[in-house]
Amino acid sequence: MSEIKVITNMLKVNEEINVQNRRMLTEKGVYTINLMSAPGAGKTSILEKLISRLKGDLRIAVVEGDLYTTKDAQRIEAHGVPVVQINTEGACHLDASLIKDAIDSLNLNEIDLLIIENIGNLVCPAEFEVGEDIKVMVSSTTEGNDKPLKYPLMYEKSSAIILNKIDLTEFTNFDKQEFYKDVKSINADAVVFETSCTKDSGIDEFCLWVKNKIDENKAKGC
To answer: 52-77 burial, b if ≥16 CB within 10 A, otherwise e?
Structure first.
């Protein structure tokens, strides 16, 4: 029973800070995306493509989550946007308190879009709200098409799912029809984008969707 209480208390505290983060970001007019995936799915590459296309129209900042290194943050910093690095030193997800510390070090008055690149993990990141407007998940053909049913919460909570490395499909046994069927059975409202960072395909469609989400949010006065 004590373990259950500890987990319950942890989630309760996280939710309280999540609400504080969300309120602060909303007041400053910052649209926030929690970007999640398994390790190696390509979320940093997707993020680089997004930044290169949208930084002329939007003021973008990034919070980079990683276990130990700053390799991804260095890649993002090269695109000329503010980056805050969080090293969890073994923890498998970012929580709301870590994000609070990160956004406290950013000038929110100079940010339109904040992207949180979460730790590569298909379980814990979906369980912890951190102040985001939406979650976006990057999946990849090289992981196999069985992931939606194996890790349903990640797919259930994502507003958009990016099926990356689509150019490698022919070299795998990935069943696209089965993937779409399973995704829709879990989250019928999720938008799916097929992308290839090496072929530079599908990225424009995703970027336009993100921009439209921000415009819709502004129109609502959020």
So the answer is: ebbeeebbbbbbbbbeeeeebbeebe
For the chain, the domain total comes to 1
- 3-state class (DSSP) for residue 140: strand
Q: What's 55's domain CATH number?
A: 3.40.50.300
Q: Which domain holds residue 91?
A: 2-219
Distance CA 37, CA 151 (A): 11
Q: How many angstroms separate the CA atoms of 7 and 98, rounded?
A: 17
Express each pLDDT in 125-138 by its tens digit: 999 999 999 999 99
d(CA 211, CA 218): 11
Size of the chain in residues: 222
The radius of gyration computed from the CA coordinates of the chain, to the nearest angstrom, equals 17
- DSSP letter for 146, please: T
Residues 46, 164 contacting (CB under 8 angstroms): yes
Q: Which amino acid is at 176?
A: K
Task: Label residue 88 exposed, middle or buried (CB < 10 Å: 0-12, 13-18, 19+).
Answer: middle
Q: What is the mean pLDDT of residues 152-163?
A: 98
Place of tokens 């980079």: 64
